[in-house]
C-alpha cells in the first residue's frame, strides 16, 4: 500500500445505543440484508478509504459477533452513553501513531450517504492542515475530513452529542465545503419512522 493510499483513514462512529429506537444499537440494524455497520464500512472502502477504524459502544460484543468487519481496527468506547463526542475522541485517539495524516469521519446511521460523497470529501485532502465537509444545499453535514493538525483541538472540544461541531464553527473560514446533495441524502436513522429508509 502506498503512502498516498494510506494517508486518510476512514473513521466510522458506530457506538450509539439507539435510545429512540427502543435501545436497538444502530450498528446492528439490518440494511440490505446485513448489519448497518457492515454497509457503512463498505461505503468508506468503496469511497477510497483503504484503512477503516470503527468505534463501538452499545452491545459491542454482539456487534463483533454478528458483523463481518475484516481488516478494520475496532475501537471500544466504554463511555459511549455520554454522547458522540466521546466516540469521536476515542476514534481520533486510536489513530495516534498509525501514520495517518487525516481522518474521514462518517456516522453509522446515515445509509443515504454512499461512496460518491466519501470520494468527493476524500479528494479535498491536501495536507494534515485540511478541514473539509460534505455539504447539502450549502449546509454542512457528513462525512467530514479532519487533518491530523486539528485532532487535538477537536478532541478538546468534543463533548456530549456535539462531536466536532464547536471546532468546525470556530474554524468555519478554513472548512472546505464539498457539495454532495446531488449524490447523497444525509438523513439519520433516529426514530422508528426513520426505519423506512432501510432496505
UniProtKB/TrEMBL annotation:
* Source superkingdom: Bacteria
The keyword Transit peptide is annotated on this UniProt entry? no
Keyword vocabulary terms for this entry: Transferase
Which CDD domains does the UniProt record give?
A: GT_2_like_f
SUPFAM superfamilies listed in its UniProt record: Nucleotide-diphospho-sugar transferases (SSF53448)
- Which InterPro entries does this chain map to? MobA-like_NTP_Trfase, Nucleotide-diphossugar_trans
Which segments constitute the MobA-like NTP transferase domain? Answer: 10-173
Molecular function terms, GO-annotated: transferase activity
Which Pfam families does the annotation name?
Answer: NTP_transf_3
The molecule here is called: NTP transferase domain-containing protein
